[in-house]
Specification:
The chain has one domain: Lipoprotein localisation LolA/LolB/LppX (outer membrane lipoprotein receptor (LolB), chain A), CATH 2.50.20. A hairpin with a 2-residue loop joins β1 and β2. By secondary structure, it is mostly beta strands. The protein is built from 3 helices and 12 strands; from the N terminus they run αββββββαββββββα. The chain is globular and about 50 Å long.
């Protein structure tokens, strides 16, 4: 998996994002995701409505055209759950995010024959205040993170993040393209005229938008 993605400077895939709580599906969205090293991502949500999530390397932007608003957060402070996929825009070293990776035999893959891998999130030492600092994955050390990988190709088919309180966010991927021609302008955000720019927590903004 690392070798498959590390050799590509740009990536593109279609995705389905599912958000569930206590086993009940609350939201499902789909679109196309683009990655460009170093550290850039563009998520174009197409269904059920058009939204844009973009990381330009320094700032994370979430644009909701219907609301005429865009939320911006410094990329390092972004706690949004798409950040586990920042691995694809980085050095693609699983060891930076996971202290251990093991087969998850109790997890059923979407596609027969795929490998299900459990990532033991590499949590950092507690801060002086006693709170756990955020890991490289953007998930807490107590979260469960799973990768579904196609054995023959090493391609990522699915990523699951399970959090306390029965919250589960799942990303399914298809139609991977490696080194597609993606201009750098795709990873720059220019606020349209008349759009309000809000500084704040991206996750709070996203919850309100949905």
């Amino acid at each position: 998996m690392e070798a498959r993605y590390r050799s590509a400077k740009t990536l593109q895939a279609t995705f389905l994002e599912r958000y569930a709580e206590n086993g009940s599906l609350l939201r499902s969205e789909a679109g196309t995701a683009y990655f460009r090293r170093p550290g850039k991502m563009r998520w174009e949500y197409e269904r059920p409505e058009k939204d844009l999530f973009l990381v330009d390397g320094k700032t994370a932007w979430f644009y909701v055209p219907a609301d005429h608003t865009v939320t911006r957060v410094p990329a390092k402070q972004n706690a949004d759950l798409r950040t586990p996929l920042a691995l694809l825009a980085g050095q693609m070293k699983i060891s930076r995010a996971c202290s251990r990776v093991e087969l998850a035999d109790d997890e059923k893959p979407l596609h027969e024959g795929d490998a299900m891998l459990r990532c033991r999130v590499r949590g950092q030492k507690q801060s002086a205040g006693g709170a756990d600092t955020e890991s490289v994955l953007g998930a807490g050390a107590s979260d469960a993170v799973f990768f579904e990988v196609v054995r023959e190709t090493g391609e990522l088919a699915r990523l699951i993040v399970r959090q306390a309180g029965g919250i589960e966010v799942e990303f399914r991927f298809e139609n991977w393209r490696f080194d597609p021609p993606l201009p750098d302008t795709m990873f720059r955000f220019e606020p349209p005229a008349g759009v309000a720019i809000v500084n704040g927590e991206l996750t709070d903004s996203r919850a309100q938008a949905n």
